[in-house]
Design goal:
Elements lengths: L1 H8 L2 H10 L4 H20 L9 H10 L17 H14 L7 H28 L1 H8 L4 H9 L15 H15 L3 H15 L4 H8 L18 H28 L1
Helix pairs in contact: 1-3, 2-3, 9-10, 9-12, 10-11
């Protein structure tokens, strides 16, 4: 109502700006200003009370007042228990997967199961249903996956964690660190073996996880190491600081890739 009042009483220049801010072309504003100024009076003089609805309740009201000849079924009510609807929709979806025309979708679902498991697949599908309006809007501007791929760049094609094996200087620092740990206690020697085996093996996500596990615990805290005092300790601390920084960077890349 406040906007309608402004359209009714403000100068033409202000009204023109208000209309332009709401998507009206400059060329059409002059002809629409008289109509815009009359909206406030029309609302105030209307015999029907002004109602403010959500989109769903407004649409439900349209269905209720639709003519019988329109073919719109009557008696519909809004359903609040969306969880039950999702469960029923998921059940029907699973029942259709054996149809011949659903072979591609069935294979995509099996790929999801193999990648993230049954529970996470169900969560992903539920989240997708919750964002179906956004997906519809994204399709209006072309193929959404192509836009997402362009935004992700190289990380969309190759897991960012696998870049570690292509960074020569970082590999040298890690091997130097592994050698230093090998001169220490039994726990340090075991950690050196784990680092060396991860670096010398094939670049893979499990190998990265094995390497990262030597620097961070399950809660993301830095792991401690036994070390001797002296020059070796000084050199260890310098390399350890550099490795921590690079490991943090790799960890951030991991988070970005998962998003």
């Amino acid at each position: 109502m406040e906007l309608l009042e402004e359209l009714a009483v403000q100068p033409d220049t202000t009204v023109a700006d208000l209309l332009y801010e709401r998507g009206i072309e400059r060329s059409a504003i002059a002809t629409l200003i008289p109509l815009a100024r009359g909206l406030y009076e029309r609302v105030l003089s209307s015999p029907q009370a002004l109602s403010i609805d959500t989109f769903h309740s407004w649409f439900a009201r349209l269905i209720q007042i639709a003519p019988l000849a329109s073919g719109v079924p009557h008696g519909y009510t809004l359903t609040e228990a969306s969880g039950e609807l999702l469960t029923e929709a998921y059940r029907r979806f699973m029942q259709t997967l054996n149809d011949e025309d659903q072979a591609e979708i069935k294979q995509s679902l099996l790929d999801l199961y193999a990648t993230v498991g049954d529970w996470n697949t169900k969560k992903l599908l539920d989240a997708f249903v919750g964002k179906r309006a956004e997906w519809w809007a994204a399709n209006l501007c072309g193929e959404p996956l192509e836009s997402l791929s362009a935004l992700c760049g190289a990380d969309g094609e190759l897991d960012a964690r696998l870049r570690l094996w292509s960074e020569v200087r970082l590999g040298e620092r890690l091997r130097n660190l592994s050698w230093l740990l090998g001169q220490g206690t039994k726990r340090n020697q075991d950690r050196a073996v784990a680092i060396e085996s991860a670096l010398t093996g094939e670049a893979s996500v499990p190998a990265f996880a094995q390497l990262l596990n030597q620097f961070y615990d399950d809660k993301g805290g830095l792991r401690g190491n036994d070390h001797k005092r002296g020059n070796c300790c000084l050199r260890w601390n310098r390399i350890w600081a550099m490795v921590q920084l690079r490991a943090l960077k790799a960890n951030s890349l991991l988070s970005a890739a998962n998003c």
